[in-house]
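Structure (tokenized):
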């Protein structure tokens, strides 16, 4: 699965990048915020902002990736935020760091990553996507107060073995429980959650037209900063039905401007696998990740930067 790193290479790369970053950005640190079911560390990198002073901390923004096992490109984009910050950041990333503390959690599901890598990316979605207990971590979040679950495919299944099995109860899994604790303690102003492979942006389901319009503007900022492939916004939805996805919980329970970004594109995915039997992995990830890292790092940074001009997203 070259050019994607093995689990061990991925961890080593992160340690080395943090060491390089801390030489120019003092205080940059690797934090273990929890452990997966199989006891792999859950890592987040904190990059302090020059805007923080002794008496006040700059707003914090979070980029998450790889909550689904096979979605390695999201991991590359998230790690790419740190790599580009060290060497010649694109303007939106430089401006973002000048005003906000960056938190990067590049692999929310290290057990799913390891399983995908061990199988050379071959298998069904239900075999690769989950954590070690067969739970879809992006359906394991609590629903907002007073909300109901949408009775449609993709909304989170109560049946073990299904691709979107939501688990026995919200936050039943150590990966989601640890991240929710981090969300509670750090009070992030904004967050981007990276998936693949549709080339789309999914804002949270919101309850007011004003919030939907704010997300439309934030998505436009993301798109406009993408140099070669501009992602499609799937309309901000004003709904009272929910699916247990991370960005809905972040917006409604933590007051955090949040978005799900599906990196890569349907067209490019089809072009590299059309008419051939390829492992599932190559539907989700580009053969060459670098152009997509170059495309998505400025986009994600521009989204987060645009949120800094807004007050907190109220629950
Ligand atoms: Zn995903």
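Design, position by position:
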């Amino acid at each position: 699965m070259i050019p994607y790193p093995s689990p061990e290479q991925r961890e080593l790369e992160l340690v080395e990048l943090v060491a390089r970053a801390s030489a120019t950005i003092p205080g940059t640190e690797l934090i273990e915020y929890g452990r997966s079911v199989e006891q792999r560390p859950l890592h987040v990198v904190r990059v302090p902002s020059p805007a923080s002073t002794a008496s006040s901390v700059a707003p914090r923004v979070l980029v998450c990736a790889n909550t689904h096992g096979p979605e390695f490109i999201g991991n590359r984009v998230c790690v790419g935020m740190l790599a580009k910050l060290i060497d010649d950041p694109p303007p939106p990333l430089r401006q973002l760091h000048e005003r906000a503390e960056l938190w990067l959690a590049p692999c929310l599901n290290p057990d799913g990553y390891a399983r995908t890598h061990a199988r050379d990316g071959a298998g069904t979605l239900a075999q690769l996507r989950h954590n070690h207990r067969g739970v879809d971590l992006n359906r394991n979040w609590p629903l907002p107060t007073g909300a109901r679950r949408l009775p449609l495919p993709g909304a989170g299944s109560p049946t073990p073995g299904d691709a979107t099995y939501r688990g026995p109860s919200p936050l039943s899994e150590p990966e989601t429980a640890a991240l929710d604790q981090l969300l509670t303690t750090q009070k992030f102003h904004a967050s981007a959650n990276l998936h693949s492979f549709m080339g789309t942006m999914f804002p949270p389901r919101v309850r007011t037209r004003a919030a939907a319009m704010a997300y439309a503007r934030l998505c436009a900022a993301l798109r406009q900063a993408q140099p070669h492939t501009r992602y499609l916004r799937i309309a901000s939805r004003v709904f009272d039905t929910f699916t247990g996805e991370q960005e809905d919980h972040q917006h409604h329970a933590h007051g955090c401007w949040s978005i799900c970004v599906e990196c890569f594109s349907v067209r490019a995915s089809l072009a590299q696998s059309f008419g051939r039997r390829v492992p599932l992995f190559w539907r989700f990830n580009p053969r060459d990740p670098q152009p997509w890292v170059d495309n998505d790092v400025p986009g994600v940074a521009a989204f987060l930067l645009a949120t800094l001009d807004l007050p907190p997203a109220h629950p």
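Reviewer-requested clarification: The chain has a mean pLDDT of 94. The pocket of zinc ion is lined by residues 68, 71, 195 (CB under 6 Å).
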